[in-house]
Amino acid sequence: MAAALRRIPVHVVVMGVAAVWVIPLLGLAVSAFRPSWAVLSSAWWESFALPGDYTLENYRRVLDRDGMALSLFNSLAVVVPATLLTVAVGAAAAYTLAGMRFRLRSAVLLTTVALIIVPIQITLVPLLRMFSTLDLTGSFLGIWLVHLGFGLPFAIYLLHNFFAAIPRELFEAAEMDGAGRGQIFFSIVLPVARPALAALAIFDFVWTWNDLLVALIFMGGFRDVAPMTVAVSQLVASRGDGWEILTSAAVLSVLVPMAVFVALQRHFVRGLLAGVSKG
Amino acid sequence: MIADRILLTLAATAVIVVAGWAYLRLGDRALAALPHGAYRRLVPWLFAAPAVAMVLLTLAAPALITVVWSFFGADGGFEGLANYAQTLSDEVTRIALRNTVLWVVLLPTLAVLVGLAIAVLADRVRYGALVKAALFLPIAISAVAAGVIWSFMYDYQPPGAAQTGTLNAVVTALGGEPVSWIIDTATNNYALIGATLWTQAGFAMVIFDAALRSVPGELLEAARLDGASEWAAFRHVTLPFLMPTVVVVATTMTVVALKAFDIVYVMTNGNYGTDVLSTVMYRALFTAKDNGLAGAVATILMLTVAPIMIANVRQFRRETGAA
């Protein structure tokens, strides 16, 4: 009995935190299915007592009239190639940095690690000007390149840690058999590194999908290429408190990264720990 | 339009895969025709060159240019520290600096506390896995969506009206006056930091969760046998083991706090005294169109992370030995 009593504070803390984390998600999920008159006249939790007033109308409106359907595919067109590029270019570089000796190797490695922390804000003005000169603003190619550049330091760091742990003998044996570096990369390194590559891909996918600043700046005000984060933030600015529309738009914008994340969370956690929690 | 986007995505994916493969395979073959010594010297660059070029072009060079520009005026003349003097004497920047400090102190502290508490305590209750999942999910939610969610939670109606905002419903149910969380300067910065904490605490928890598994069970057993309370065992055995992880989590959260932009942009747009350095810089860039001024704000932001950057490089050097 005394032991059970002593555990009460534990339950209070854990349940309290759980409530603070679940209630906003619940509020979002419920509100996104309520018609505007219901949102205006009653709170979302009251809708459990007044059943029958749920609707899919909000989604139809957001997708059609507010162009969210196009934004969804804009997001995919930004994120899929950008992620693939970051993983590919990062993997090639990390393989070299972890497995080969060459001049400037440690300089490149240390610069990379330092650049992980650099706030990207410091690069924006010159980069934007360079992109305007090259006519790359508002283009998908432009934003792929920006995300590639900004994503690389972390990508290289994460993969380097993983590659450095692969036993040297594996490479040396292949080299004895006369395999070139390219062959070793494709037939040994990539297959062995699959878990790390998957973790990086998930990371990068979610980050790129959720980015607002880069999209705002490099996609400019071009509505027809705006990804979801930009579209939702524009809805916020123009709608003020059309909660039923804003919440449905928010639900749409989190569906894809959430699905990727939940489906692959095992890889994500493993990759995260390979990269971050050393020491 | 939508069909265009799908086509673009697929085409780009195919091009990246094929071109990437061809570049490395054919490049490797071409280099292999050279004498062995030359091959060994050049082949690392075949692999590293695309990454090095991208990092130089999009990060290193622009960062340097920004720092240089921050000493020049809008008309192109050298002005020394004038931009810094102007921005630091500006009320808006001072508020932003103060807020950024508030973010940097509170976000890492709270993320460590909540993440560690749940990582430790969730294992002691039967519904622990569910609680962990609840904390974990918002990692995938963008700051934009989190901004919408929390604006909705913080919604305010005048006293007497029905409170449809969740937080104010709780406050009025307890007999209090409704608070305009986002507008009231006494609460709004904390409201924004709280919303960010909601998206980030799960990350802290995951890392602590893994670190806890590396705490030697025998040591904890021995402490308990010696009659140490649960708290004492945690304090003297677990916590020392977790200290490096606390540093990792706090560093990551400090960086998040320094870069905070999206959530402020969506929830208040920097109004009501909630500006942070990022939003000030964004406005210097797009409203005032002053590159020098924007550069000065960005450089200040950069200087504030410099100590973390140095610590990170040192740590990396220690771990990898010679690197």
UniProtKB/TrEMBL annotation, chain A:
Gene3D superfamilies reported for this sequence: MetI-like
InterPro entries linked to this entry: MetI-like, MetI-like_sf
Membrane topology label: Multi-pass membrane protein
GO annotation terms (biological process): transmembrane transport
Residue stretches making up the ABC transmembrane type-1 domain: 72-264
A GO term from the CC aspect: plasma membrane
Keyword annotations: Cell membrane, Membrane, Transmembrane, Transmembrane helix, Transport
SUPFAM superfamilies: MetI-like
Localisation per UniProt entry: Cell membrane
Chief site of localization: membrane
PROSITE patterns assigned: ABC_TM1 (PS50928)
Membrane-spanning parts: 12-33, 72-95, 107-128, 140-163, 184-209, 245-264
Family: Belongs to the binding-protein-dependent transport system permease family.
Stated name of the protein: Alpha-glucoside transport system permease protein
Lineage: Bacteria, Bacillati, Actinomycetota, Actinomycetes, Jiangellales
From TrEMBL, chain B:
Gene3D superfamilies hit by this protein: MetI-like
Metal-binding keyword on record: no
Compartment(s) of residence: Cell membrane
GO BP: any one term: transmembrane transport
Gene Ontology CC terms, in alphabetical order: plasma membrane
Topological type in the membrane: Multi-pass membrane protein
Transmembrane segments: 6-24, 45-72, 101-122, 134-153, 190-212, 233-258, 293-313
Keywords: Cell membrane, Membrane, Transmembrane, Transmembrane helix, Transport
Domain ABC transmembrane type-1 per the UniProt entry, residue ranges: 97-312
PANTHER family with a match to the protein in the record: BLL4140 PROTEIN, DIACETYLCHITOBIOSE UPTAKE SYSTEM PERMEASE PROTEIN DASB
Stated family: Belongs to the binding-protein-dependent transport system permease family.
Protein name: Alpha-glucoside transport system permease protein
Biological source species: Jiangella mangrovi
